[in-house]
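Fold it.
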Amino acid sequence: MQVRIIKDKKGLASLEKVWDQLLLESKQANFFQSYTWIKYWWEYFSIKHNADMHIMVFTVNKKIRVIAPLMIVKTLFLGIPYKTVRFMGTTGTDTVLRGRYDRFFSIDNTLGWCDQCDVIPNTGKFFVPAMDAFIRYILQRKNWDMLDLRELSKGSPTLKYLRDMTRRGELPKNFEKEMQASYSLHIKGHYEAYFATLSKNTRKAFNNSRNRIKKLGAPVYEVARTPSQIEVILPQIVALEQKSWKGENQCGAFSATANKKYHISVAQSLASKKEIEIHYLKINNQMVSFYYCFLYQNRIYLHLTAFDPDLSRLMPSFYLLFLLIERAFQNNINVVDFCRANTFFKTRFKTTPSSRVWWKLYSTRILPRIYYSTEFKLKPMLKSLIGKNYDK
């Protein structure tokens, strides 16, 4: 098995066809590992995060068998250059702000929009030889301080491989922890039967939302799918999202120029492939809520949502979500993927959690050891002393 390193956009573009073909072979393949998603993430965020492309391509008889979509992120730790090897797309975005202490220590534990990352594919007869070559490559080189693999599925063969190597004592000091779970609704049977299984409070909340909305005006539920429909609806969802509530940091998916351009470019690219849908609700010809969704392998991903804050008492996003789920039953969708975070809201819909794991490997050099002590000894001590103000 030979290893080739891709370091530029031209090399990335050459992988487009084989990338998605290999992804179909992966266990728990996910839209956020697709070529389109990674391509546009790199275009809009790599410079901001001072990242260098470092995709490892594993070939046998000149045929590509495995791809490790990696990058090297360069930061400063206590004023000293510090390099971290990560999956492409897993660096935090402007929608999450770090506290001043994490910024001081250059500790970035924020999560980006990628909901799951992995080696592609993470199964098959070439997977283990590729992982052996990957680990050899990493351990033999001195141009990294930390291997930071975020968003691995708990059932990932890659994670199992790394754990097995750790148990055998073949890897230096490493760390792992469970992250926010992703939530999925597996579609089975008929919508009416599913609705009846929901709690009494959830069904009552839906009925109340529907009745309040109908008093204001006849609701219209529509789905934009074609390139022309997406083109028309994009400015409207951008305007609604920018108006919508975004939390105390006032950060939203369209709040920064790069974020906005990124999501618009992704939508325009995916529309021609029929891999995106924008579900939206109108009352009196005014958009009051939307869901920006991806379609991949008969699974719909609820990536972004927003609603008119002036109508929050009507719970328009809650009502729209029921309409979206009902449509998923009617259109033979296998899974509605709620993605991660907001646990209580998502569990109301009879979803199943799927944990993500954060795995880190530290170089044996002095600086990574200091980084490790800062993150897992000094930082917890400061948090206990400072309390809630630590993250501000």
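The chain has two domains: 2-179+356-391, 183-353.
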